[in-house]
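Design a sequence for this backbone.
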């Protein structure tokens, strides 16, 4: 980890409790994306983020101003795991009110030919390709919801 990454991690260490208090008081709305990436073997990509809850989840993140949900998902895939694409398939979405925010999350699907990925060591601590029924221990609260959306999507496309 380089010096700049250490400074960023330190910043988030102090920022997160303050942000949680802000959310408790003001109840903001946030927009997010998650992408289920599936390889030719039918395995899906999961990442363990290196900040916040540090649990297993799917690649994704927040939607920036003047950015569409799909643009955000494309950007997050490239930033977090080095996957470049121009088009994703929207599977559905969900709304969560965890952490005193109204989170509106859209979920996307991407089929890839190669299992080669490059992780961003600042945001992602590790990754795994796994069968949808054999997920690693310690998943984020959103994983079951996203898996249900993925299963419904796959049942309609087969």
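Sequence:
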């Amino acid at each position: 980890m380089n010096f700049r990454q250490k400074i960023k991690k330190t910043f988030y260490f102090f920022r997160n409790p303050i942000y949680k208090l802000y959310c408790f008081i003001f109840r903001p709305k946030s927009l997010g994306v998650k992408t289920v990436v599936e390889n030719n073997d039918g395995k899906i990509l999961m990442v363990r983020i290196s900040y916040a809850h540090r649990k297993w989840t799917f690649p994704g993140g927040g939607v920036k101003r003047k950015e569409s949900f799909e643009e955000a998902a494309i950007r997050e895939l490239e930033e977090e795991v080095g996957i470049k694409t121009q088009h994703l398939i929207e599977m559905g979405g969900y709304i969560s009110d965890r952490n005193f925010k109204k989170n509106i999350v859209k979920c996307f699907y991407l089929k890839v030919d190669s299992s080669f990925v490059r992780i961003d060591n600042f945001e992602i601590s590790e990754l795994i390709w796994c069968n949808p029924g054999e997920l690693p221990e310690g998943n984020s609260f959103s994983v079951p919801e996203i898996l249900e959306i993925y299963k419904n999507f796959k049942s309609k496309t087969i």
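Helices lie at 3-26, 69-81, 143-157.
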